[in-house]
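Q: A reviewer asked whether we had any structural model of the full assembly, not just the individual parts. We don't, so I'm hoping you can provide one. Inputs are below.
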Amino acid sequence: MPAALACLLLAIVLWAPGAQAKLEIEIIKGHASALPIAVVPFQWRASGYPPITSVTDVVSQDLYRSGLFNPVDEADMAERPVDAEAIRFGTWRLLKTDYIVIGRVNNAPDGNGYDIVYQLFDVHTQERLLSQITSVGLGDLRFGAHRVADAIYEKLTGVPGAFSTRIAYVAATRDGERQHFELVVADADGFNPQSVVGSPEPLLSPNWSPDGERLAYVSFEKGNSAIYVQHVSTGARELIASGKGINGAPAFSPDGRYLAMALSRTDNLEIHIRDMSSGALRQLTNHWAIDTEPAWSPDGRNIYFTSDRGGKAQVYRVAAGGGTAERITLEGEYNARATVAPDGRSIAVAHGQGNEYRIGVWDLENERMRILTPGVLDESPSFAPNSSMILYATREGDRGVLSAVSADGNVRQRLILSEGDVREPAWSPVIR
Amino acid sequence: MNIALRLLFALSVAVAVAACKTTEPAPDTSADDTTRRPAPVEDVVTSAAPDPRDYTDARNFDNNESLLSKRVIYFDFDKSNVKAEYRDIVAAHAAYLAAHGSARVTLEGHADERGTREYNLGLGERRGNSVTGLLSAGGGSGNQLDVVSYGEERPVCRVSNEDCWWQNRRVEIIYTAR
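A: Here is a predicted structure for the entire assembly that you could use as a starting point for your response.
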């Protein structure tokens, strides 16, 4: 069977181009009222062999990871309908399933990819809630499966899914005194990790451009901190700031035209805004304190930033056009590295009390802090583009790992890298 | 976390602490070193050895009895003021810089891991600036002094407790030219 074996190997290669899955995912704290849903294995009607990890598995795992769904174990499925007429709803009601997803994978009509054809039913009302075709290119079956999960998630929760997005993070490995840092971009579930840049010197603070095509980050490769902006797909990059002192904390404006940064070119760390087309630089803050970690409001009008002008680090807000800064966080000794929820209603921060640093969400309207994580050194919160989850860096022993927590704190999951220290996560915007 | 995991975690931390203590070099300065000055040497056989209090003599960089051999300043958590016990060390380096106009120093500012990385970059820089201020006041000139902050990115000790943290909250005085 050498030919079949060759086909199988080819399928594996096509499925995972050049990178193995490094991250495992584990739900630490689930949701008591997760919706039971049966994702029946999609029939493979395309040419060649089906991928090792099926479309169905990817969809199920996405829904499970959200914490809002409890997918039925495939082994418990007595029937595996492919077409709507074959569904016997009574059987699924006995399995205590609320929803059922059926589907198949066809060759695209032009032969250059796949069509994932699927339907979602309410088991109790027998109503068809979704009937869609998701078309993807030859190497993008996994991405297509994430899109299917996005659509199901949106239909059943009313909130767009964020499974077909990506994450950036920094992985640090150490061999004796030698260190190596990689800026990595992976799918939101941790699969398909691709190194964007590697360096023997520290890398930090990755920040996505709103179109998801570029990453701004800080690199110490020249000995001092410097800010670069790099195209994720082509690798082409531009040096943005490498002046005297600190060049840190880059943050793209929501329209992508400006980059906020923390620079100490004036001998003190201040927030600056660079016009990305003209290169013109404007100083936004002017205070003897440490002013850093700018984060834009979704409407681009305001900038939240960390300052210790009141004695300890707290989050302040200033109009992006300039003006007087106003203190925002009012609870806790230390609040820093704000990230604004895409809906603009809250900010997530690293919240320090004594020696414990946790992820907190500050409700901007009600002025209340809610602590979401149990960690002792949690930092770098980053919202999913649908505001549903917050990705953050935490510690296990002396090792850095990434975790994600639902915005209500009810679901928590850990993304484990097989080796090294993982930190500085940044969730991408929605990629169209 | 269940009990077994907690125990495993505690054990791994304990092992890591032990490893840290045995592998990290002893800090090259302490409060004792700076307060207990060596008694003046009155022997006649001192022709070869430099006077440890002659802070213009470059040989004292390698003389453990001289403050010039101390080149790390430690700080309190989230603070950047140079504590009283380190002022003599900084003054010694200021005297050297004043006497050697071609000497150059880079002050590397560092922080412990608590707090966010970018804030700690700012904190490391502020610590470097504090030392710079004292060096200038003591006779060093601006063109001899450079500050680079690494924040929490280059710890000398990697365990999450105060035994490690105090060693990481530091400014290293690095001579790029003597």
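A: Points you may want to mention in the reply: The first helix of chain A runs from residue 2 to 15. The domain at 2-157 of chain A is CATH 3.40.50.10070 (Rossmann fold).
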